[in-house]
Amino acid sequence: MFLNIITHPEYCYLTKNDILNCIVFAPTGLCKLRNLQELDLSSNSFEGFIPSCLSNFTSLRLLELSENSFVGTIPSTLFVNLKSLEYVSLSYNRFEGSLSFSSFSGNSKLEVFELDSHNNKLKVDTENPPWTPLFQLKVLRLTNCKLNEPRGTIPSFLLNQFDLRVVNLSHNNMVGEVPNWLLTNNKNLEFLGLRNNILTGELLLHPNSRNLDMFWLDISMNQIHGILPPYIGSVFPMLLFLNISMNAFQGPIPPSVGDMRNLDLLDLSNNNFSEEVPEQLFMGCVSLRFLKLSNNNLQGQLLPAKSNLTGLLSLYLDSNHFSGEISPGLFNSTYLGLLDLSNNSISGKFPDWIGDFSHLGSLVLSKNAIEGRIPESFCRLQQLNFLDLSWNNLLGVLPSCSNLSSLKYLHLQGNEFSGPLPHILSRSSSLVTLDIRENKFSGEVPNWIGSLSGLRILLLKGNSFEGSFPPQICRLKNITIMDLSSNKFSGPIPTCLSSIALGITRAFDDTFVTNTYGWTLYRSFRTYSYESELKVNQYVMGDFFTTDVEEEIEFISKSRFESYKGNILHYMSGVDLSCNNLTGSIPSELGYLSHIHTLNLSHNHLTGVIPKTFSNLKQIQSLDLSYNSLSGQIPQELIQLNFLSVFSVAHNNLSGRIPDRKGQFATFDESSYEGNPLLSRPPPERGGTRSTELSQLTPDWEESDSFRERFLWSFIGSYVVAFIGIIVFLYLNFYFNREVNILYLLKQKLEFKTSRTIV
Description:
One of its GO terms (biological process) is defense response. The longest helix is centred in the last third of the chain and has 55 residues, at 704-758. Among the domains are: 492-503 and 573-702, Leucine-rich repeat, LRR (right-handed beta-alpha superhelix) (Alpha-Beta Horseshoe), CATH 3.80.10.10; 719-759. Strand 44 (552-557) and strand 45 (560-565) form a beta hairpin. The strands form 8 sheets. The protein has a 23-stranded parallel β-sheet, with no helix packed on it. By secondary structure, the chain is an alpha/beta fold.
């Protein structure tokens, strides 16, 4: 239903049984129904403001307006006269402005209040003006709000609530210690969500307490520290969902976690847990489907040999200190769809039994010490979507029997794989990322690579590929990042590269967006019932979602390795052809890659001039043409590149003057131009007279031949002057010495005559 409930001019007067028709066809007629007790407009497309006339519905017990497009401020007087209200839901609209909870101060019957502001623009104040609740809530969902700004305090009225069943205060930037008193005061609490706040302190539980109703506990994304209470499993034995990730918990994982036999999801990731994972967890949590222990300091063997996690679908043990071989304890988890053991100290051979996991869609074993060849049993993994074996000690090639038709992301970087590019990849029509950097692959790039029409990222760096630049790559019309550096490619750069739509933002699809597992849990209340003629059903909905392993790419940009992850890859583009044996001139057609961000052609044998068409690279951030044999001038038009932050033409044969120090070119220092002795450089900047000084102090040689001629005549003139000077010096020196010798002989003769006369 699409209508604006404020501006519709019509009226209607219908019986109570036709109330919904009245709302649909003449919304202003709604204001005539003052004896209305239940109003449910949820999950429609209503727009505009909440009608102020609703404050006259003094008999209203239920007000359900969630999942619409209502905007503006929630009227401050809306709830003052509605003394009979028991149920209020305003979630998932577009409200702005502010709401004070003091407007409920006269209401003694309120049991359910829900408000997820959805757009995080609504200010909610539960503290001012001061008030005392007359009601006892059973359900409070108050999320994604600007709560009690600027201090962000936890709502103090909850201290007087003792019958709460559902509390969700997630995504509110609340500050303070974790409210353990909520658990103490409300013995029948079923759902507690405090996700994504700034709570500190420790989670404290009484060792003798026991809550058989609690099924959802989410305190993730806070700053809670200390140890996880050792008796948590006996306090909450019926938990289905436990998420304490992204905090500062430390110490061991309590063995009592194994007492939670109904646990469906357990996320302890991104904390400081240490020691070994207790065997009780793997033996007792028989209902686990999702287990995430990533980014801790756990050690020991991955899983015990007698693991009883038969229903496990996703297992994240990455970024810990696990050692030894891949445990056969995984045998019992035959439905495993995701296995991430990356960034540990796992050693030994690639397990032959890995092929028994016929449902495996994501396998991540990167950054370990696994060695040897990939076994033939690997061929039974026919549903692989994501495979990352990078940075191990694997060798050989992928088994020829492999069926990789479903594969989208392949990472083999940093191993000892050798031989030509595996032909089995020619059947991977869904491939999006091919990363085989830093291996020992050789030979020419095969023609079939052009058939991988969906390929977006091609990384061949650091191998021994040879031959001319593979023109079949030009058929990869969806390519966005291409790294062919540090190989043995030779010959010219093909002009057809300009036909690739590098850097053009495409409509979002599932590329780079990995599979998402939603743990949105629905469960009817056991303890809250409300008899409604509209049959309003109450459910608990959690907001936790888990994702598959993220696609992450490293690429040299701005002269350093950058890591790009997830959706940012939609906006990144670049070509790196550096450190090869490429020859010939730079095709001017490359200047038509107007959306590219990075272009690196350094350390080749390229000749000719820098194309003036490079001034069309309006989005480029890094341009490296250093260590080639380029000649001529640097095009002055390049100063139009407003996003350029890294620029190097060092160690070429360029001449003339460098571009004016304007815009981004005012940020480049001597290192960008060094190794070009015929380049003339402007003087340092001195206030606002830079241009005048530049023209006065720097010769404006427009042609390199003229410069060479002037340099030659200047050298010859200096040589002639120096030669004449040497001759004159030698002559004067000889004449001076001759005169000195004559004077000396005359002196000797005079002294001899004088001595004879005296005698």
